[in-house]
Recover the amino acids of this structure.
């Protein structure tokens, strides 16, 4: 089958991306399904794997991809045959089973990612646990692939971890990326007042067109004063961030008393300087968040299939142009998701 492979570690990643025609077809194992891919979408995880981060000892050439939509062609032992012929979307986060120990309470499960720990969706066919797919009916495969992982991540950040309620004021950093735009869509669905940041005015302009209330140009300085001015010195209820070190203090100083800082990533580095005095005096909550479980996935995908939420798609490339798709994501100039179409 055809597949998009990263041939070796290096930068730029796009230089090592190739479409091959002789990739062995996967087979559905027990409780798995085999999906004929209609569309797969890129995430920053695809770039991190190409750069060798995190240190996964990735066996190159590697087929990545943690977002995919397609039609189930076959099922493995123990999976329901009624899946066959259905268009499905993937939750790439697979919880690792663990043995309970006597007298010790269970913790959150660690995760294995399709596209990171096992081959992914950037191929004509992929396999996944039947427990990790949802039927999306006649949905547009490109939009479904673009929707899944970023909206699941954003849903857990806002709804599960930050306990978002209607009408709150929310700061979203780094608008233009897939997760940030998913955060914006969920906030708009909840009737929240939204503040978005970017280093690019054109991205702020696009976000305002989508319905964001305020755009703050990140000039590399403390932008919390602007947030305070816009909120009558109150601050925001929630800051949802994935930028990390470079803007962390600005985020913390933008929060109202009792506010919540929630993060799903640190693209500018994890070793941020924080303000513990502000943390305890203003009774702030810090929350980490990653991916989401199938109950959260069902909740957010139901909003997609009903038309209440829709992804922002920047670029759609045919599989033959997959290197250009990686190049687009790597440039940082995208506004929304970059999708590979398989036809």
């Amino acid at each position: 089958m055809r597949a998009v492979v990263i041939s070796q570690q290096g930068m730029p990643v796009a230089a090592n991306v190739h479409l091959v025609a002789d990739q062995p077809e996967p087979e559905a194992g027990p409780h798995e399904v085999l999906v004929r891919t209609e569309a797969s979408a890129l995430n920053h995880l695809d770039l991190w794997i190409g750069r060798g981060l995190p240190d996964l000892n990735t066996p190159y050439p590697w087929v990545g991809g943690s977002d995919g939509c397609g039609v189930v062609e076959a099922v493995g032992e123990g999976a329901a045959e009624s899946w066959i012929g259905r268009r499905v979307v993937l939750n790439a986060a697979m919880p690792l089973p663990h043995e309970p120990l006597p007298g010790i309470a269970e913790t959150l499960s660690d995760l294995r990612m399709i596209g990171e720990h096992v081959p992914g969706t950037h191929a004509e066919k992929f396999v996944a646990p039947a427990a990790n797919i949802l039927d999306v009916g006649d949905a547009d495969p490109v939009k479904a692939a673009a929707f899944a992982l970023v909206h699941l991540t954003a849903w857990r950040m806002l709804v599960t971890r930050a306990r978002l309620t209607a009408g709150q004021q929310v700061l979203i950093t780094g608008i233009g990326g897939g997760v940030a735009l998913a955060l914006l869509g969920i906030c708009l669905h909840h009737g929240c007042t939204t503040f978005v940041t970017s280093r690019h005015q054109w991205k702020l302009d696009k976000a305002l067109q989508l319905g964001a209330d305020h755009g703050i140009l990140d000039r590399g300085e403390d932008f919390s004063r602007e947030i305070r001015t816009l909120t009558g010195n109150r601050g925001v209820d929630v800051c949802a961030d994935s930028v990390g070190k470079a803007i962390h203090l600005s985020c913390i100083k933008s929060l109202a008393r009792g506010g919540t800082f929630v993060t799903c990533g640190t693209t500018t580095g994890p070793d941020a300087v924080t303000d513990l005095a502000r943390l305890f005096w203003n009774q702030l909550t810090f929350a980490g968040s990653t991916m989401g479980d199938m109950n959260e996935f069902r909740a957010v995908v139901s909003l997609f299939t009903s038309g209440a939420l829709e992804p922002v798609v920047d670029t759609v490339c045919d599989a033959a142009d997959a290197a250009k798709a990686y190049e687009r994501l790597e440039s940082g100039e995208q506004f929304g998701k970059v999708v590979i179409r398989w036809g």
Q: What stands out?
A: Residues 3-138+312-341 form a domain with the Quinone Oxidoreductase; Chain A, domain 1 fold (CATH 3.90.180.10). The chain has a mean pLDDT of 95.
